[in-house]
User: What shape does this take?
Amino acid sequence: MSDHIEVCSFIHAHEEVVEMVRERMPEEELLYDLAELFKVFGDSTRIKILYALFESELCVCDIAQLLNMTQSAISHQLRVLKQSHLVKYRRDGKIILYSLADDHVRRIINQGMEHVEE
Amino acid sequence: MSDHIEVCSFIHAHEEVVEMVRERMPEEELLYDLAELFKVFGDSTRIKILYALFESELCVCDIAQLLNMTQSAISHQLRVLKQSHLVKYRRDGKIILYSLADDHVRRIINQGMEHVEE
DNA sequence: CATACATATGAACATTTGTTCATATGTATG
DNA sequence: CATACATATGAACAAATGTTCATATGTATG
Assistant: This one.
């Protein structure tokens, strides 16, 4: 453990460890997609929308009223959430009702909340 | 609850639902902090760093070599991860070794990965 | 204590991102 | 089919973010 090569000037880092780690890293693309997913959770407006949908399916105007934001802003954000498969929607007359896509959303947010609440 | 915004006529339906949801929403500040946390996960460089630290504690240069990035870029990102309490570090001679702060990190990432892998 | 090395930091820059404004699309109803 | 309503979209703009470059700080060793 402590037989570190003392020179860490980039060209001679802990070569074997680095190689071991490299081999175990997931695909570049997968890591990119994962970061993209978290990026979606990384905005307080979208977090609020998702939390709201924890309780009930809602239309765009409901959410706009709840968060005191414009219809347009909410619609733009819902599109992002749709594209990431975090919310789904159904039409009911002229209204479109949004809801959480599945239980992953809840679990991801809850895990995050556990860390934040410490 | 005073005047709201133009386009959408907020006088319409779902008032009670919106009120119910509003009451159950967590504190504004908590939601903000949660978004900030996910923002940290929302960058592929930082995701890669965290995944690397899944396998072994590493110094800045190790990570720079692994990801083929500059020492400076990695150092900047490690600072972000430190500030969010996602990584910790210890000194060993002139080297500083970084590792995951706790198991939340793993769990949050794994939950995210489940969603991405579908 | 002078030197080399490992890491940190600040400023500058390009890119990305969230909101607004104006307007378009789509859908039910008179 | 004309109208009103619910939602979507595109362009523009400001704010936030990640990397680079240059340099500073801190630490061991000869």
